[in-house]
Design goal:
Length: about 250
């Protein structure tokens, strides 16, 4: 992502097959690039001051925020939803506080007026990813790579037979990376189709290698892309289209 002549940030660098999100710019200088059919945009941020975003949230979002027990969890929620609103507003060229959301049957949020863009939000620790598409279903998932004692158990319980076979054939030292790639690819897909965890995770298969691939029964074509947001995060983007060009980058929320 390069600064334009007026110090504005856009249009986002093309995201290659390694999924690297390069370049960085402040959210305050963000100017939404045109989001055309056949493209998906993905923006990644870490941290941010909740005080800057709180006034953008509606009563329902604030009520959800206030249900968190720990202040840092509340702060992360406020920043994630404030960033989502800020980005959507930039793409729509309108005020972030005026956006209204509705939820699908399984919880997938969308814009109430149906005008788009379509979007997906993911947060893990203080990392936030927002993915957007003009007219394709989209799902994004990021995870902070971290030690997990129950990793092998999760694979045994929730992954498909092919995924289990591939994962347990790996030497233990390579399993952590494989787990997070598999997990984020599966989660990006179930978020893309809008079913979330209502879609049994063992009912379809992804791979842990590059490029990312998916085998699922859905009639519509889906493509999966690996994301490397940096800072120890890994992610995946699922788009309901046969092919897609991805652009994006990293934003600092201040
Ligand atoms: C969405 C889901 C797949 C993954 O969530 P996660 O790993 O905890 O967290 P992520 O940060 O990656 O994604 C959460 C975001 O996905 C979005 N989301 C929620 N339900 C979704 C769905 N069915 N499809 C797509 N996106 C969804 C929301 O924007 C949510 O953000 P919010 O919680 O701050 O409002 C999972 O929470 C889910 O299936 N939720 C819906 C059903 C449910 O709550 N089931 C209870 C557990 S069985």
């Amino acid at each position: 992502m390069k600064a334009g002549p007026a110090g504005e940030y856009g249009p986002g660098a093309p995201v290659g097959s390694d999924g690297a999100l390069s370049g960085a710019g402040p959210l305050t200088a963000f100017r939404a690039p045109p989001l055309v059919s056949g493209e998906a945009h993905v923006w990644f941020a870490r941290g941010g001051d909740p005080g800057r975003f709180e006034s953008l949230l509606d009563a329902e979002e604030l009520a959800r925020a206030d249900r968190f027990v720990f202040p840092e969890h509340r702060a992360r929620f406020v920043v994630a939803h404030g960033l989502l609103r800020s980005l959507l507003a930039a793409y729509r060229d309108g005020p972030p506080g005026a956006l209204r959301f509705v939820e699908g049957r399984y919880g997938k949020p969308s814009l109430a007026d149906g005008a788009g863009p379509r979007f997906s939000l993911s947060h893990s620790e203080d990392g936030i990813a927002v993915a957007l598409a003009r007219d394709a279903d989209i799902g994004v998932d990021i995870e902070r790579v971290r030690a997990m004692k129950d990793r092998d158990d999760l694979v045994a319980r929730f992954f498909s037979e092919d995924e289990k076979e591939a994962y347990f054939a790996l030497p233990p030292a390579r399993r952590e990376q494989a787990f997070f790639r598999l997990w984020t690819r599966k989660e990006a897909f179930v978020k893309g189709i809008g079913l979330g965890f209502s879609r049994p995770l063992e009912s379809f298969t992804v791979n842990a290698e590059m490029p990312a691939r998916i085998g699922a029964a859905e009639a519509a074509p889906w493509c999966l892309h690996h994301l490397s947001p940096g800072d120890g995060f890994v992610g995946a983007l699922a788009v309901g289209a046969a092919s897609v060009t991805i652009r994006g980058g990293r934003l600092s929320c201040g």
